[in-house]
Specification:
Blueprint: E1 10-14, E2 19-22, H1 28-36, E3 40-41, H2 53-59, E4 75-81, E5 87-91, E6 94-95, E7 98-99, H3 101-107, E8 116-123, E9 125-126, E10 129-138, E11 147-148, E12 171-172, H4 176-181, E13 186-192, E14 197-206, H5 228-256, H6 261-270, H7 273-277, H8 280-296, E15 327-329, E16 347-353, H9 354-358, E17 366-374, H10 378-394, E18 405-410, E19 425-433, H11 443-455, E20 459-460, H12 470-476, H13 480-490, H14 499-505
Antiparallel strand pairs: 1-2, 2-8, 3-9, 4-5, 4-8, 6-7, 10-14, 10-16, 11-12, 13-14, 13-18, 15-16, 17-19, 17-20, 18-19
Helix pairs in contact: 5-6
Length: 526
């Protein structure tokens, strides 16, 4: 393994052609900062930006958006130092009389097998903001229940949403998952199986200016100058996002290590309407109702939930508010901004620079597993996952997973080892948090989840847990054989074959070495 941390410089930013050229060790956080000086931005970003550019390009890091691919799909050309010591610049098509397209296609999502990438050029675009609308819907909305939706400003309308990417949201109808994924430029879903509710997040580009941000909540020198209303919001943000949304949540996961049923009741509260609305009165009522219910109900009966009369399980898993600069509007705020959400669905609107909306707070260390499946299979796949989890929750001693389950999408790509090769994709991922960095049992959960994903044509995320062999990869990737041929041409002695590559791409190593490799994603400091 080669650490590229010191190769972290920006080589060139070309505003006229909307490109940035940088070394591979630079973090996406630094890329965002450099691009902002030229009023530019990356077109799509994943959940975190602490990753290196080279790592993203080599492992298929992705965001969400049916008309957007992985970070690797944004690459125009790369410089690679081969095993022979020769430095080669490659891109799609011919370059100075040499056809390096094969090397280019093998290097992207190539796990570092072709050589050492030392320079990357990305296509970017004019800087934009994102207006994100989140709302509560039931899981059944993806199985045929009609759900009202909104345009980018949250205004209810009746426009259809099945015509590709659009700034207008209409209704979610039968077969609705594919339509939902096409209902905005960037759509992602957080599913809470404990409450059978879904947080639907839809974001569209806007070039409206940002409002002046409130001061960071970690500073107290400015408190005397704040109005009572603003001070109240600062304290509310700390209570909901820091105290309940982090400290109490982590403690509940810790208790859940020994009493797994706690995970179920925590899921009910953190996916409640009270937590979503940041309503203290409703929140206390929900806590009391769920707490009383837990005294007599120690097993989840599928299709039923403990809730107060006003509590609809719902939440948004990002730490929101003043602490990270988002402008937030809940239902009660919308009348001041001419936003009229559906009266039947709790709604929240976020507005910020693009990468701050793309990124989320990953909270704690975690085990994670994610698969890309054909978008056309997504609804049936999610039904199978739901059936499995319902069975687990109905059993005494059954699995009690953490929350949420994340669902995203991406466009078809032509990169040989991209999980999105040749098809529109639905990404489905689950997590097991490690409270206070303590180990957690996750093998059984991940094994059954993988079984379901495989049955629907799932391809694993290269940077997350999986146990795929060369036989599996040959079946899933039509260009896998050609990829191995290119690697053999440029690295005949296997200089760049690490243990991961040997195990999964070449089937080398003992039985113990074939176990899944779990990579951790750590909490992002905002």
């Amino acid at each position: 393994m080669i650490r590229m941390d010191k190769l972290d410089k920006v080589i060139e930013v070309d505003p006229s052609n909307c490109t940035i050229t940088a070394q591979p060790g630079i973090s996406l956080t630094s890329v965002h900062a450099h691009l902002s000086r030229y009023d530019l931005a990356m077109s799509n970003v994943g959940s975190i930006s602490e990753q290196s550019l080279g790592g993203c390009v080599s492992s298929g890091t992705h965001g969400s958006g049916i008309s957007f691919g992985s970070v690797a799909s944004q690459v125009l050309d790369v410089d690679v130092i081969l095993a022979s010591g020769k430095k080669v610049r490659c891109k799609k098509g011919e370059l100075k009389g040499e056809n390096n397209e094969r090397l280019f296609m093998a290097t992207l999502c190539g796990l570092g097998t072709t050589g050492v990438v030392v320079r990357v050029t990305l296509k970017v675009e004019k800087a934009f903001r994102l207006r994100e609308v989140r709302e509560l819907i039931s899981f059944e909305a993806f199985e045929g229940v009609t759900v009202a939706a909104k345009d980018v400003n949250g205004v209810a309308n009746g426009n259809g949403i099945g015509n590709g990417v659009s700034h207008a949201h209409g209704e979610v109808k039968k077969g609705g998952l594919e339509e939902v994924m096409a209902s905005a430029e960037h759509v992602r879903i957080w599913w809470y199986p404990q409450s059978n509710r879904v947080c639907l997040s839809r974001s569209n580009r806007t070039y409206d200016p940002l409002p002046l941000p409130l001061p960071p909540s970690s500073s107290f020198t400015w408190l005397h100058s704040l109005s009572p209303r603003t001070l109240s919001r600062v304290l509310e943000t700390w209570f909901w996002d820091t105290f309940l949304g982090h400290s109490v949540l982590q403690f509940s996961y810790f208790v859940g290590r020994h009493f797994p049923e706690v995970n179920y009741y925590a899921g009910l509260f953190y996916s409640s309407e009270a937590f979503f609305r940041r309503s203290l009165g409703v929140g206390l009522k929900a806590i009391l109702t769920i707490g009383i219910g837990s005294l007599w109900r120690w097993r989840w009966r599928p299709g039923k939930s403990v809730s107060s009369s006003r509590s609809s399980p719902f939440t948004h898993p990002r730490t929101n508010g003043i602490t990270n600069g988002h402008t937030i509007k809940t239902d009660s705020d919308h009348h001041r901004d001419h936003i009229h959400p559906s009266p039947t669905h709790p709604t929240i609107t976020l507005f910020d620079v693009s990468h701050k909306i793309f990124n989320v707070d990953c909270l704690f260390p975690q085990y994670t597993i994610e698969y890309s499946i054909p978008l056309s299979n997504a609804t049936s796949c999610l039904r199978d996952v739901k059936k499995w989890l319902d069975e687990e929750h109905s059993k005494k001693g059954g699995l009690r997973p953490h929350f949420p389950i994340e669902v995203r999408c991406s466009e078809a790509e032509d990169i040989w080892l991209s999980p999105g090769f040749g098809r529109e994709n639905c990404w489905i991922g689950i997590i097991v948090y490690k409270p206070y960095a303590l180990p957690m049992e996750h093998a059984q959960l991940f094994a059954h989840f993988s079984f379901i994903m495989r049955s629907h044509g799932g391809r694993p995320h290269w940077a997350k847990t999986h146990d795929f062999s060369p036989v599996d990869l040959h079946q899933l990737y039509p260009m896998f054989g050609e990829f191995l041929n290119v690697v053999k041409e440029v690295d005949p002695e296997g200089m760049f074959r690490n243990e991961y590559v040997k195990r999964h791409l070449y089937g080398e190593g003992g039985e113990g070495e074939k176990d899944a490799v779990g990579l951790e994603v750590f909490r992002k400091d905002v």
